[in-house]
Write a structure and sequence with these properties.
The structure is a homodimer. Chain A is α/β, with parallel strands linked by helices. Chain A has a single domain, classed as P-loop containing nucleotide triphosphate hydrolases (Rossmann fold, 3-Layer(aba) Sandwich). The first copy, chain A, is built from eight helices and nine strands. In chain A, the strands form two sheets. In chain A, strands 2-7-1-8-9 form a five-stranded parallel sheet, sandwiched between helices. The first copy, chain A, has a four-stranded mixed sheet with strand order 4-3-6-5. In chain A, β5 and β6 form a beta hairpin. In chain A, α5 runs antiparallel to α6. Chain A is globular, with a radius of gyration of 18 Å. At the A-B interface, α5, β9, α7 and α8 of A face α5, β9, α7 and α8 of B.
């Protein structure tokens, strides 16, 4: 069995990456999700081990000290990181592993897994992004402005990603992410073993 | 409108690349075919301007002298080449241009168009390739042996291509080629203009 591919998906808040992933797992059964660890408080409905592994600050720092996280960053005063062992096991089992990480973490993952695929999800426009954030009805004007500012900062990293996918239409965005994943499985650099097999047939 | 992508498809004889392309054009209407020029004699049913541009040796050599071919090679005593002007016009019009070229020509195209995508079509196995060649019923044992030998030589170039697609099942191979093309359209290196557009929105 060939090793799976680590796939990093980053997107500014409001670009719909959670919804994209939810749909994506329904159409691609070779994908698994890498659950991140964090020290932030669980929000309503979030379950430990599903949304995140919720850890205390000292537990998280012990994971770092024990070299148990692939990468971690501190964001708004909380740690966010990728547990190493689970990812390695899933890749070895041939599964493609989705890592939902913010842009700086994505850059770190690329250093660790040079074979990983980085996908950036873009909003169709900032006007639309603002409209979507406002539509939630839960955010203050100040939070919206801060998220837009953060999104603009994150877009500065987009060209360091391998692919850019615009989430204008959800179904199309889901298909597009899946297209990229399926295509990457056919790249020559991932198929040296297949070529040998055919050569020796 | 963004510029189209030059897509090179190579495959040993008997791997079904003509049938793949025929089906591919039915499912992707942004693709156009770059008709090659050749000095070989037309086979039954082949039309000038559709299968190939059939040219005399001196006409072809004038095209070379006038810098009107992107690349050319001599193969079994005949010239085969890619007319430059038509390809450039189609790319500028935003069309993705399919170039069906043998492996050495493919390497030359990559030098000219660094942005091109190289796809190699593999047989599922040499046993199967031999069976397919024999099934045609038109080839002598000697020709079959020579084609298999040629196929083995061409496979030595496969890892220089960007993607490898196995033609075991025709429908799957057609979908796979299309998946690669659609995915490449989303690569960051081809979408600098899109990113600027979103940034300035």
């Amino acid at each position: 069995m060939s090793r799976g591919i680590p796939i990093v998906i980053s997107a500014p808040s409001g670009c719909g990456k959670d919804t994209i992933l939810e749909q994506l797992f329904k159409i691609n059964d070779n994908l698994v999700y890498s659950v991140s660890a964090t020290t932030r408080q669980p929000r309503e409905g979030e379950k430990d081990g599903a949304s995140y592994f919720f850890r205390t600050r000292s537990e998280f720092e012990k994971m770092i000290a024990d070299n148990e996280v692939l990468e971690y960053t501190e964001y708004c005063g909380n740690y966010y990181g990728t547990p190493k062992k689970a990812v390695e096991e899933m890749l070895s089992a041939g599964k493609d592993v989705i890592l939902k990480i913010e842009v700086e973490g994505a850059m770190n993952i690329k250093k660790i897994f040079s074979e990983c695929v980085l996908i950036f999800v873009l909003p169709p426009s900032f006007t639309e992004l603002e409209r979507r954030l406002r539509k939630r009805g839960t955010e203050t004007e100040e939070t919206i402005a801060s998220r837009i500012k953060q999104a603009r900062a994150e877009l500065e990293f987009a060209d360091k990603f391998d692919y850019m996918i615009v989430n204008g239409d959800l179904d199309k965005a889901v298909r597009d992410v899946n297209t990229v994943i399926l295509s990457e499985k056919m790249s020559s650099k991932r198929n040296a073993a297949l070529l040998e097999l055919v050569k020796n047939s």
